[in-house]
Amino acid sequence: MVRKFYPEEFKADAVELYSSTPGATIKEIAADLGVHEGTLSRWLQAAGVTSPTAAGRADDGGGSSGAGVPETAAEELERLRAEVKRLRADKSLLETEREILRKAAKYFAGETTW
Questions:
Q1: Which numeric CATH code is attached to 8-55+72-111?
Q2: What DSSP state is assigned to residue 67?
Q3: Where are the alpha helices (DSSP H) in 21-72?
Q4: In a structure prediction context, what are the per-residue pLDDT tens digits for the chain, which is 114 residues long?
């Protein structure tokens, strides 16, 4: 099997993506980036990242808290603020992933010699 070479910038971006993603698992991030889980684990260990940054998202963005009980204006405001916070975090994650993929595509396009 041929050993793949990844540039340091790609490794650093992968570590940053894992560190900045709440509830991320090594398996998920590795699959998204197309690298082996063990490879990503070694990069994380080398960078000093040893554990997940968060246990996961507690808020699922659902509606009212009780079944059939309408929410008050204060509860709605709190729910909407939490949803905005979650959506902003998701947007940030997607922008980071897109940038990593752009860099990877640029790198691999320059590597081909057709």
A1: 1.10.10
A2: T
A3: 26-33, 37-47
A4: 667 888 888 898 889 888 888 888 899 888 888 889 999 999 999 988 875 533 333 344 444 455 567 889 888 898 899 899 889 988 988 999 899 888 888 888 886 665
Neighbours of 75 (CB within 10 A): 14
Q: Domain residues of the chain, as ranges?
A: 8-55+72-111
Gap between the Cα atoms of 57 and 22, Å rounded: 7
The one-letter amino acid at 32 = D
DSSP state letters, 13-25: HHHHHHHHSTT--
